[in-house]
Design goal:
Blueprint: E1 5-9, H1 16-23, E2 29-31, H2 45-55, E3 60-67, H3 73-86, E4 91-96, H4 102-108, H5 115-130, E5 135-138, E6 143-147, E7 164-166, H6 171-180, E8 183-184, H7 191-207, E9 216-225, H8 229-244, H9 249-255, E10 258-259, H10 261-274, E11 278-283, H11 289-300
Parallel strand pairs: 1-2, 1-11, 2-3, 3-4, 4-7, 7-8, 8-9, 9-10, 9-11
Antiparallel strand pairs: 5-6
Helix pairs in contact: 2-3, 3-5, 5-6, 6-7, 7-10, 10-11
Keywords: Flavoprotein, FMN, Monooxygenase, Oxidoreductase
Organism: Actinocorallia longicatena
InterPro entries: Lucif-like_OxRdtase_Rv2161c, Luciferase-like_dom, Luciferase-like_sf, SsuD_RutA_monooxygenase
Length: about 300
């Protein structure tokens, strides 16, 4: 884990030409998430993931993120296993608890207060079904016996199922990553906060006797990289909107780097020093998002250096 890699978020929607161009860049992964009932006409996570698997050939593809408590885990396990097997084992599952849009929880009959507990149990269900062979589960929310999941292309996916990468920013998400996840992928988090999350996850895992060997230290990073640094900063402010766009520039720079390749590299180096090894670059712009990914991959990534994680 002394190597730094870049991924990209296919914002605003997966498009075949964008993905083909992105695969020619020195990036390792492409991600896209989605809500079940978003306030606008944007896609849903599993549907978008299906497009990513169909329209890419080389890169790892993943959900960033799947609002897992909104889904029945047996159905999700089948969908994700099929996509993983169809893609030759390239799928990763970024999961989160959601909660930004309470109406989608109401519409699917899931109490908002249960989203954390449901996510924890759903991860357990996914893993049981992905192991292969008959599985039995009796939990708080779901129960089944001698149930076997058979992917559409047996043996073509990753053994044991796709990795589960936990997203979030708060202590329960860190605990979930430490105990249940294969990786950690927060968002809108400063380098200092990321470093503290690494410590918290390691301590939680150690207390539970869990070995984090192979654990992925990721960061979903909204940013804009342009030759014109002022353009990049203006784009970022407009993209983040009223919730964050009006914040002081110093605060925005801590959670969403923007500027020239040299400026963004300096910001990302602070994340590397905090423990990040896999960045998912989410272009904070309304146009030419591929240009941001290209500059990030070709001019920011080579400027970053990392030592071995301890």
């Amino acid at each position: 884990m002394d190597r730094i890699i870049f991924g990209a978020a296919a914002i605003p929607e997966p498009e075949r030409a964008w993905l083909a161009a992105a695969e020619r860049l020195p990036i390792s992964s492409i991600w896209q998430g989605g809500h079940v009932l978003p306030p606008g006409p944007s896609g849903e996570a599993v549907t978008r993931l299906a497009l990513l698997t169909a329209w890419t050939e080389r890169v790892r593809v993943g959900t960033a993120v799947l609002m897992l408590p909104l889904y029945h885990p047996v159905i999700a396990a089948k969908q994700l296993a099929d996509l993983d097997s169809r893609s030759g084992g390239r799928v990763s599952v970024g999961v989160g608890v959601g909660g930004e849009f309470p109406r989608e929880f109401d519409a699917v009959g899931v109490p908002l207060s249960e989203r954390g507990a449901r996510t924890d149990e759903a991860i357990e269900v996914l893993r049981k079904l992905w192991r292969g062979g008959p599985a039995t589960h009796k939990g708080r929310f779901w129960e089944f016996a001698d149930t076997e999941l058979r992917p559409v292309a047996p043996g073509a996916g990753r053994q044991g199922g796709p990795p589960v990468i936990v997203s979030g920013r708060k202590a329960p998400a860190m605990r979930r990553a430490a105990l249940l996840g294969d990786g950690w992928m927060p968002y809108l988090m400063s380098p200092g906060a990321y470093a503290r999350s690494v410590t918290a996850i390691r301590e939680e895992a150690a207390a539970a006797g869990r070995d984090l060997d192979g654990f992925e230290w990721m960061m979903y990073l909204y940013c804009s990289v342009r030759a014109d640094g002022d353009r990049a900063r203006d784009e970022r402010a407009a993209f983040l909107g009223s919730a964050y766009g009006g914040k002081p520039r110093e605060m925005l720079d801590r959670i969403s780097p923007a500027g020239t390749p040299e400026e963004v590299a300096a910001s990302l180096q602070a994340y590397v020093d905090a423990g990040v090894r896999h960045f998912v670059i989410a272009p904070a712009a309304g146009a030419d998002t591929l240009g941001i990914v290209r500059l990030a991959a070709e001019e920011v990534l080579p400027r970053l250096t990392a030592g071995a994680l301890t």
